[in-house]
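Bumping with the actual sequence this time:
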Amino acid sequence: MISGIYFALNWVDFESDGSKILTLISTFKTNHFMKLFSSVFTLMFFTTSTLFAQSEIKETFPIDDDSGHVKFQEVVNMAGVNQAELFKRANTWFKDFYKNPGSVIQTKNADKGLIIGKKKFDLFREIDGKRTHVGFVNYEITIGAKEGRYRYTVNELYFIDSPRNYIENWYEGTPEEMVWQTKYLEQVKEYVDTLVASVKEGMAKAEVVETDDW
């Protein structure tokens, strides 16, 4: 009898608080769904933004038809400037741009007007909120001079020596990988832009020779 009364009282309590329980369950489901939706939406937005950013930067990386790798190349007209002068300017640029040009220059041929150098630059990644050095990007730079024009080439851009991890491999990956790979590509583009601008500035300068004749 007592147990029956206790059950009845509990049932009454349950009925009186039923709406509260249902509200709590509904609130829990809603909050859980909203958190899940928010996480999925954030991931989709982040991935889409990364893909868009990478798509934009990929357009600035020309691929060589023969090698299948990234190659920056341009022929610059220099009317009235002969090959010997352009070669001299190229040689001066290598000496000015690099701290140790002797270790950079691999080939130097005045007759062909050709200088080839190999160098690398630092690559960084944010890890635990800190800008962390993660390695180097190797590259090759060539300046070839002819009568009235020169051509610069920046190619053989890769991250790891063996096997070579060429930078175009950073076009693919998981959403998480593409975040930092896109950052890597942005650093490469910034460095190459600075390099090319410096080459053009150096090749446009005529060497000033001091003389008493005036």
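The tokens above came from a reply further down the thread. The chain has two domains: 1-59, 60-204.
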